[in-house]
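ARCHIVE ENTRY
Sequence with per-residue tokens
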Amino acid sequence: MNYRPLGRTGVKVSPLVLGTDNFLNPTSEAESIRLINRALEAGINLIDTSNSYKQGESERIIGQALAENGRRDEVIIATKVHYPTGPGPNDRGNSRLHIMKACEDSLRRLQTDHIDLYQLHRPDFETPIDETLSALTDLVRQGKVRYIGSSTAPAWKVMEAIMTSELKGYVRFVSEQPPYNLLDRRIENELVPLCQAYGLGLICWSPLAMGMLAGRYANDDIRPAGSRAALRGGIYADRVTPRAVEMGNKFVALAQAHGLSGAQLAILWAKDQPGITAPIIGPRTIEQLEHLLPVLDMTLDEAIRAACDELVPPGSAVANFHNSAPWMKMKLLD
């Protein structure tokens, strides 16, 4: 396996990341621990989570698994802060007050003395970026955090953070974690070139487009049992559009014509796009994980890349995977 640099750091990460949003939602605790152990056995060394996934239970399971298998030092733990952790007005956001408390809570659940990559789950437009970066810098200097990053932020907010760090001597972002898949390629317009120019890693979420690129949806009116659109509704269901389903099913046919499943090609496509460090895979079962592991050693064929560009051109979108980001005003037209 060819490990990749995380941004301009000296850290090497696997070309696939184990995502844990499904832990206890719906994957059982026992199966979640098996997923962690199998991923580590296969060489995946970056596990992504958040203090908001199942109210922190995802972090707790990761901590338990690593305590049991004794492999904490082999793993890069990436977790996040931003979303509400309680009913109070200060139990959310990117303020110093919230970040400091949330970090301590995450450390306790993860059963570790440090977080390898601490990410802002979303930008906070009410808190000055220098307050946020100052707090994160203190956590790094205290040894509780190794590196920092952001998630689902507009390119200008990432650039603002980089320049503030440069001007004031704060710790600098090493990565950004945006939504990215063949059905929503909008980050290619500004965010990808920015990260390439300033040395930030890109760890992308939802590379399977909620299963639309794996053939889960026969048409946009069907919500298969167990799919995110069926289990969670809301913004998840809103992403399933007629045009997205049509392109997703054409993509599956393309994958099968080349001896791959839609899921495998979707992950491979995201993994080998310019500027991408690694896509996050979020298997719900060991079987799903086993199906995706061969992608670790695959390389995207240029003819297939060109065929994918014909389906959904670079920089465009037929599904809105930025609909969890209030800052994104652009709406897809029918």
